[in-house]
UniProtKB/TrEMBL annotation:
UniProt keyword annotations, A-Z: Nucleus, Ribosome biogenesis
GO biological process: ribosomal large subunit assembly; rRNA processing
Location (main, coarse): nucleus
GO cellular component term, pick one: nucleolus
Entry function: May play a role in ribosome biogenesis.
Protein name, per record: Ribosome biogenesis protein NOP53
Domain of life the protein comes from: Eukaryota
InterPro entries per record: Nop53/GLTSCR2
Subcellular location per the Swiss-Prot or TrEMBL entry: Nucleus, Nucleolus; Nucleus, Nucleoplasm
Keyword Phosphoprotein: no
Biased composition (Basic and acidic residues): 317-334
A GO molecular-function descriptor: 5S rRNA binding
Region (Disordered): 1-20, 233-266, 316-338
Organism from which the protein derives: Umbelopsis vinacea
Amino acid sequence: MPDKQKTTQPSRKGKKAWRRNIDIGDVEEHLEQVRTEERSGGKISERSDDKLFMIDVKGDDRVKRQLAKDKPLYIEKILESRSAIPAVGTRLFSLPKASPKDKGKESRANNAKIDKMVKRKLTHTEPAKPIKKSKGTAYDVWADEEPTAVDINPYLDPVRKRKVHEPTTLKVKPAAAVHLPAVQVADAGASYNPTMEDHQALLRKANKVEEDKIAERERINKQLEFRKELLEMDDDEVAKSDNEEEEDSDVHSDDDEETRKRKEIRKKTRTERNRLRRAKETKWLEDRRRREKALNKELHKLDEIQQMVVDVEQETEEKTKLRQERQEAKEKAGLPRLGKHYVPKVPIEVQLTDELSESLRTLKPEGNAFKDRFNSLQKRNIIEPRVPVAAKRRYKLKEYEKHSYKQFDRANNKKSKTPL
């Protein structure tokens, strides 16, 4: 067998060879570990138990999930057998009789044994297996979660979840809902058998509403229609007015040039500068003397000024009180606009004289109870008035001519150009 190769031992003759060839890796590893421990708070061997270990009082989410998973259903708790007396078994039934061929094969003792086993199975029911209860603590699903302790950095502002700011009128009932009746009684003229005066008064009121609508419609159409005066004007008059406007603009431009020439800066002499400085000082002294004189005059009228201030404060308080009373009266009567849209006005329901019925049996029903209730909620400022929103196109339609239409148009132009 060949000899085993001997490991060569490095030379340790001098100090350099000792430093170079001695393995000190374990010493360096230990020193590095000690340095790491000192950087992280000190040596582990010198630390106390409180700094090395901690008691977990928070719990484990996995245990919570396991408790919820092992929890029996409520229906299973109801059906669970908690009585010491066994439940009554099902009704006994007779076994099918064996054929004559099988009777010869089986003995009477075996049949009796089988019957006995069947009867014991039917009469004695096995008790339900008890549900294993978990050893963990009970967990209430509906309980409020306790806030978990969070380490807050004192150098940073803590981030907290802020509540949504509630308006002051959120829990205040509208004044109109208190003072306005939920169901308003109709006008006396809307009765099925009204008096002549009440019916005519209601007709005049409805007629006034319709006349106002017609007048408003005519006013808008008059503003939108084309002015006939423009058709009567000749082309010469239009050109003349344009020329006059151009001449006026030329005159204004000439005036601007003259004023610009006049305002050319000219260097002032020393005498002029001294004169202006003395005039400025004199004006400042006169203004100061005038202000002091006015101040002395006001000091002598201090009692009058105090009485004036009292009168102004009283007048302001009266105006504020009057404004509040008007606002309260307006709220009690129902605000005409709550939000973006106005409360829609319900048309007056009235029948003409020839449409009046002689009895309730022949009365024609008018209006809509659902619309009346909805409008009443809007009048009492309980709900916000809204309008139906129509669907709008997001992008405008692009118009273009097809190639076939262009060819058709070109052919028509050629036909029109051909001489007859």
